[in-house]
Amino acid sequence: MKKTIELDRSQLFTTAWAVRPDCSSFSEALSKAWASYKLRTAMNEGIVAFLYKKKDGSFRPAAGTLQLELLSAQYTPKTERETQPTVLTYFDAQRMDWRSCKVANLLLAA
Q1: Are 101 and 40 in contact (CB under 8 A)?
Q2: pTM
């Protein structure tokens, strides 16, 4: 079952307003929301490399996916969780585990 993400401007602005306290301006928050949307869309197609800032201030390069067909049965989620607009959850192809990062901390997506 392939999960598609359709552009929902309401959801995009909800994400932007949710990450606004962590950003210096609404313009920056909106660009982070767009980056998150584009990254999620790309991760539905395959494995994508990106970079984000961790809580301790260090930078973490990651290669993640949301395409469940690439995962073995032991890694597929058993239930569907409600997504949070401020958090990007992904399957880390390097560490072979589920990870998450704050949308406001996204730096670069390849």
Answers
A1: no
A2: 0.82
